[in-house]
Specification:
Shape: globular
Number of helices: 8
CATH class of the largest domain: Alpha Beta
Strand content: 15-25%
Structural class: alpha/beta
Largest sheet: 6 strands, mixed
CATH superfamily of the largest domain: HAD superfamily/HAD-like
Strand order of the largest sheet: 8-7-6-9-11-10
CATH topology of the largest domain: Rossmann fold
Protein backbone atom coordinates (compact mmCIF):
# COMPACT_ATOMS: atom_id res chain seq x y z
CA UNK A 1 0.00 0.00 0.00
CA UNK A 2 1.21 3.57 -0.61
CA UNK A 3 2.55 5.62 2.30
CA UNK A 4 0.04 8.27 3.35
CA UNK A 5 1.55 9.36 6.68
CA UNK A 6 5.21 9.98 7.55
CA UNK A 7 6.18 10.58 11.19
CA UNK A 8 9.65 12.03 11.66
CA UNK A 9 11.73 12.71 14.75
CA UNK A 10 13.62 16.00 15.08
CA UNK A 11 16.86 15.82 17.10
CA UNK A 12 19.43 13.52 15.55
CA UNK A 13 17.10 12.69 12.67
CA UNK A 14 15.81 15.80 10.94
CA UNK A 15 18.06 18.35 12.67
CA UNK A 16 21.75 18.05 13.49
CA UNK A 17 23.87 19.16 16.45
CA UNK A 18 23.76 22.72 15.10
CA UNK A 19 19.94 22.52 15.31
CA UNK A 20 19.74 22.89 11.54
CA UNK A 21 17.86 20.90 8.92
CA UNK A 22 19.64 19.35 5.95
CA UNK A 23 18.37 21.09 2.79
CA UNK A 24 17.88 17.74 1.05
CA UNK A 25 15.71 16.46 3.90
CA UNK A 26 13.70 19.67 3.83
CA UNK A 27 13.20 19.36 0.09
CA UNK A 28 12.21 15.68 0.32
CA UNK A 29 9.60 16.28 3.03
CA UNK A 30 8.18 19.30 1.25
CA UNK A 31 7.89 17.17 -1.89
CA UNK A 32 6.06 14.50 0.11
CA UNK A 33 3.62 17.11 1.40
CA UNK A 34 3.10 18.43 -2.13
CA UNK A 35 2.33 14.86 -3.24
CA UNK A 36 -0.43 14.59 -0.64
CA UNK A 37 1.46 12.75 2.11
CA UNK A 38 0.73 13.91 5.67
CA UNK A 39 4.06 14.64 7.40
CA UNK A 40 3.94 14.72 11.20
CA UNK A 41 6.78 15.70 13.51
CA UNK A 42 7.07 13.31 16.49
CA UNK A 43 9.45 14.73 19.08
CA UNK A 44 10.25 15.02 22.75
CA UNK A 45 10.42 18.78 22.30
CA UNK A 46 7.82 21.22 23.54
CA UNK A 47 5.35 22.64 21.03
CA UNK A 48 7.01 26.07 21.07
CA UNK A 49 10.42 24.47 20.52
CA UNK A 50 9.32 22.34 17.56
CA UNK A 51 6.98 24.83 15.88
CA UNK A 52 9.75 26.67 13.94
CA UNK A 53 10.74 23.39 12.26
CA UNK A 54 7.13 22.58 11.38
CA UNK A 55 6.83 26.03 9.84
CA UNK A 56 10.11 25.59 7.97
CA UNK A 57 8.63 22.48 6.35
CA UNK A 58 5.30 24.16 5.66
CA UNK A 59 3.41 21.57 7.69
CA UNK A 60 -0.21 21.71 8.80
CA UNK A 61 -2.26 19.31 10.85
CA UNK A 62 -1.14 17.46 14.00
CA UNK A 63 2.24 17.56 15.73
CA UNK A 64 3.39 15.12 18.44
CA UNK A 65 5.30 16.66 21.37
CA UNK A 66 6.72 15.65 24.77
CA UNK A 67 7.40 12.04 23.67
CA UNK A 68 3.72 11.68 22.79
CA UNK A 69 2.26 13.25 25.93
CA UNK A 70 0.69 16.06 23.89
CA UNK A 71 -0.72 16.24 20.36
CA UNK A 72 -1.65 19.65 18.97
CA UNK A 73 -2.84 21.25 15.78
CA UNK A 74 0.03 23.25 14.29
CA UNK A 75 -2.01 26.16 12.95
CA UNK A 76 -4.17 26.83 16.00
CA UNK A 77 -2.16 25.25 18.81
CA UNK A 78 -5.32 23.41 19.87
CA UNK A 79 -4.60 20.45 22.14
CA UNK A 80 -5.99 17.23 20.65
CA UNK A 81 -4.55 14.92 23.31
CA UNK A 82 -2.76 15.34 26.63
CA UNK A 83 -1.52 12.82 29.20
CA UNK A 84 0.59 14.23 32.02
CA UNK A 85 2.49 13.04 35.08
CA UNK A 86 0.35 13.03 38.21
CA UNK A 87 1.63 14.53 41.45
CA UNK A 88 2.37 11.07 42.94
CA UNK A 89 4.42 10.19 39.83
CA UNK A 90 6.31 13.48 40.06
CA UNK A 91 7.01 13.10 43.77
CA UNK A 92 8.26 9.56 43.28
CA UNK A 93 10.78 10.66 40.62
CA UNK A 94 11.93 13.72 42.57
CA UNK A 95 12.29 11.66 45.74
CA UNK A 96 15.05 9.77 43.94
CA UNK A 97 16.63 12.53 41.84
CA UNK A 98 16.83 15.49 44.22
CA UNK A 99 18.85 13.88 47.06
CA UNK A 100 21.39 12.75 44.46
CA UNK A 101 21.79 16.27 43.11
CA UNK A 102 20.52 15.37 39.65
CA UNK A 103 19.41 18.30 37.52
CA UNK A 104 15.67 18.10 36.76
CA UNK A 105 13.37 20.20 34.56
CA UNK A 106 9.58 20.22 34.93
CA UNK A 107 7.14 21.37 32.23
CA UNK A 108 3.89 23.24 32.81
CA UNK A 109 1.92 25.15 30.19
CA UNK A 110 4.79 25.27 27.68
CA UNK A 111 7.25 26.66 30.24
CA UNK A 112 10.36 25.05 31.76
CA UNK A 113 10.97 25.15 35.52
CA UNK A 114 14.04 24.02 37.43
CA UNK A 115 15.53 24.26 40.91
CA UNK A 116 18.55 26.40 40.07
CA UNK A 117 20.59 27.93 37.28
CA UNK A 118 23.35 25.54 36.25
CA UNK A 119 25.38 24.37 33.24
CA UNK A 120 22.80 21.60 32.80
CA UNK A 121 19.95 24.12 32.69
CA UNK A 122 21.88 26.25 30.22
CA UNK A 123 22.59 23.25 27.98
CA UNK A 124 18.91 22.36 27.84
CA UNK A 125 17.92 25.97 27.13
CA UNK A 126 20.42 26.16 24.27
CA UNK A 127 19.27 22.92 22.67
CA UNK A 128 15.55 23.56 23.14
CA UNK A 129 15.73 27.30 22.41
CA UNK A 130 13.45 27.86 25.41
CA UNK A 131 14.46 29.80 28.56
CA UNK A 132 13.92 28.35 32.02
CA UNK A 133 12.48 29.62 35.30
CA UNK A 134 14.30 29.05 38.61
CA UNK A 135 11.82 28.11 41.35
CA UNK A 136 13.82 26.25 44.00
CA UNK A 137 13.32 22.56 44.83
CA UNK A 138 10.70 21.15 42.48
CA UNK A 139 9.42 18.75 45.14
CA UNK A 140 8.27 21.78 47.16
CA UNK A 141 7.19 23.96 44.25
CA UNK A 142 5.12 21.59 42.11
CA UNK A 143 1.47 21.47 43.13
CA UNK A 144 -0.15 20.07 39.98
CA UNK A 145 0.49 17.78 37.05
CA UNK A 146 3.52 18.28 34.82
CA UNK A 147 3.74 17.21 31.18
CA UNK A 148 7.08 15.48 31.77
CA UNK A 149 10.36 15.64 33.68
CA UNK A 150 13.79 15.79 32.06
CA UNK A 151 16.99 14.91 33.89
CA UNK A 152 20.09 16.49 32.35
CA UNK A 153 23.61 15.04 32.69
CA UNK A 154 26.60 16.75 31.08
CA UNK A 155 28.41 13.39 30.81
CA UNK A 156 26.62 11.13 28.29
CA UNK A 157 28.53 8.12 29.63
CA UNK A 158 26.72 8.51 32.96
CA UNK A 159 23.28 8.58 31.36
CA UNK A 160 22.69 4.83 30.78
CA UNK A 161 23.47 4.01 34.41
CA UNK A 162 21.30 6.80 35.78
CA UNK A 163 18.52 5.85 33.40
CA UNK A 164 18.63 2.22 34.58
CA UNK A 165 18.54 3.33 38.24
CA UNK A 166 15.59 5.63 37.70
CA UNK A 167 13.75 3.11 35.54
CA UNK A 168 13.99 0.53 38.32
CA UNK A 169 12.83 3.10 40.89
CA UNK A 170 9.87 4.18 38.73
CA UNK A 171 8.92 0.67 37.58
CA UNK A 172 5.16 0.44 37.10
CA UNK A 173 4.71 4.10 38.08
CA UNK A 174 6.07 6.13 35.16
CA UNK A 175 7.94 5.55 31.92
CA UNK A 176 11.64 6.43 31.63
CA UNK A 177 13.21 6.97 28.21
CA UNK A 178 16.11 8.81 26.57
CA UNK A 179 16.08 11.48 23.89
CA UNK A 180 19.43 13.19 23.29
CA UNK A 181 22.72 11.96 24.77
CA UNK A 182 22.33 14.15 27.88
CA UNK A 183 18.59 13.85 28.52
CA UNK A 184 16.60 11.26 30.49
CA UNK A 185 12.85 11.81 30.19
CA UNK A 186 10.07 10.72 32.54
CA UNK A 187 6.50 10.58 31.26
CA UNK A 188 3.16 9.04 32.19
CA UNK A 189 3.31 5.24 31.63
CA UNK A 190 0.56 5.53 29.02
CA UNK A 191 2.66 7.93 26.92
CA UNK A 192 4.76 7.00 23.90
CA UNK A 193 5.38 8.32 20.44
CA UNK A 194 3.84 5.11 19.11
CA UNK A 195 0.52 5.58 20.92
CA UNK A 196 0.36 9.24 19.87
CA UNK A 197 1.11 8.29 16.27
CA UNK A 198 -1.67 5.68 16.36
CA UNK A 199 -4.06 8.37 17.60
CA UNK A 200 -3.00 10.73 14.80
CA UNK A 201 -3.32 8.01 12.15
CA UNK A 202 -6.82 7.11 13.35
CA UNK A 203 -7.81 10.77 13.36
CA UNK A 204 -6.59 11.13 9.77
CA UNK A 205 -8.16 7.85 8.64
CA UNK A 206 -4.80 6.28 7.80
CA UNK A 207 -4.18 2.54 8.23
CA UNK A 208 -1.07 1.40 10.10
CA UNK A 209 0.25 -0.22 6.91
CA UNK A 210 0.24 3.23 5.30
CA UNK A 211 2.47 4.81 7.97
CA UNK A 212 6.24 5.33 7.78
CA UNK A 213 8.16 6.41 10.92
CA UNK A 214 11.72 7.77 10.93
CA UNK A 215 13.89 8.24 14.03
CA UNK A 216 17.30 7.58 15.55
CA UNK A 217 16.96 6.81 19.27
CA UNK A 218 15.35 4.41 21.73
CA UNK A 219 12.30 6.64 22.06
CA UNK A 220 11.67 6.25 18.31
CA UNK A 221 11.92 2.47 18.03
CA UNK A 222 8.36 1.94 19.25
CA UNK A 223 6.96 3.87 16.28
Amino acid sequence: MPIRLVAVDLDGTLIDHRLQMNPRDRQALRAAVAAGVQVVIATGRMFRSSLPYAQELGLSGPIINYQGAVVREISSGQVLYRCELSLPMLRRALEYAEPRGWHVNAYLDEEVYTERASPEADLYARVSMVPYHVVGPLSRWLNRESTKLVLVDLDPQEVPGRMAELDAWMSGIARVTRSLDWFIEVVNPQVSKASALALVAERLGVDRSEVCAIGDNVNDQEM
